[in-house]
Amino acid sequence: MTTKRALLIVNPRAGKVKNTEVITDYIKTEFGKCGTEVDVRYTTCKGDATVIAEDNAGKYDFYICCGGDGTFSETISGIMQMDEKVPIGYIPTGSTNDMAKTLNLPKDFKQATHVCAAGVPTAHDVGVFNEEMYFAYIASFGAFTEVSYSTSQKMKNNFGHFAYIIGGVRQIPHLRSYNVTVRANGEEFTGDILFGSVSNTLSFAGLFSFNKEDVSLSDGEFEVLLVKKPTGAITLGRTVHGMLHKKYEKNNIILLHAKEVEFEFNSDVPDWSLDGEHCSGRQRITARAAEKTIEIIR
């Protein structure tokens, strides 16, 4: 049996993990049974997974990410810097794990380890933001976006997905819209947008979700969601109903599929969230899908 080498990147602060050594030892043991030697690196701060992944380019056959969606996203960003990209496996231990749900990965780390050890690398799209940064599953602005990066790690660890709901409710009195021109698929739309996103996921922080038939992870197109500013109580009710029941219609909520989309803001420029991490906004933003760029083991 040919021995393979894997790099396990672990976020010891993710989710409700209490004994990281137990998890890493289990992962190393299970992969050892498959003839894979596993080296472990722990993250210590934001952006660490990207640095670790990039610094170890060319040394391993594949990477394994153990943490939340943020750690997974950072690891992918590091892989994207490589000349020869390696496959990545994901063992989710975060608080919400939107990307893990989209990939249909088990919540239990032991089951997820077995899936990763026996899985096959499958090509997936990656988001390119302003030709400078990458995102694994979502770039968003507007209402509730701040919740994804302002919710404290302690609160996420204690309350999990519910922490985002609490944060979202707190934002309701302060909701605002942004006047923006959106260009995609040769069409142009201008209006006041409460929330906008470019995504490749079935859900986002438990606040928005899509039907499975609307999302493909490797078709070279992302889902663009635009929630218009409600003009009154009735419109607000229809918008909330549409969000809750995944009914997206052009009157209140626009859902379209596009390989590339451009946002041009009138005056106020919102901050963005890339996979739950804060990103400063600009007057003009582009986001595109790099088709089948990353191989995820599943």
Write the layout of secondary structure elements.
Blueprint: E1 4-10, H1 20-33, E2 36-42, H2 48-55, E3 62-67, H3 69-80, E4 88-92, H4 98-102, H5 109-118, E5 121-129, E6 133-135, E7 138-142, H6 145-150, H7 153-159, H8 161-171, E8 178-184, E9 187-199, E10 203-204, E11 208-209, E12 222-228, H9 233-244, E13 253-258, E14 260-265, E15 272-274, E16 277-279, E17 284-297
Helix pairs in contact: 1-5, 2-3, 7-8
Describe this structure in words.
The chain has 9 helices and 17 strands. By secondary structure, the chain is α+β, with helices and mostly antiparallel strands. The strands form 2 sheets. The chain has a 15-stranded mixed sheet that branches. The chain has a two-stranded antiparallel sheet with strand order 10-11. β10 (203-204) and β11 form a beta hairpin. α1 (20-33) runs parallel beside α5 and α2 runs parallel beside α3 (69-80). It is elongated. Mean pLDDT is 85; it is low at 147-152 and 155-173.
Taking pLDDT < 50 over at least 5 consecutive residues as the criterion, the unreliable ranges are: 147-152, 155-173
Characterize the main sheet.
15 strands, mixed
Structural class: alpha+beta
Share in β-strands:
35-45%
Spatial separation of the terminal alpha carbons: 22 Å
Total number of strands: 17
Can you give the helix content as a percent range?
A: 25-40%
Element order, helices and strands? EHEHEHEHHEEEHHHEEEEEHEEEEE
Anisotropy-based shape: elongated
Rounded to an integer in angstroms, the radius of gyration calculated over CA atoms is 19 Å
Helical stretch count? 9
What's the rounded overall pLDDT mean? Answer: 85
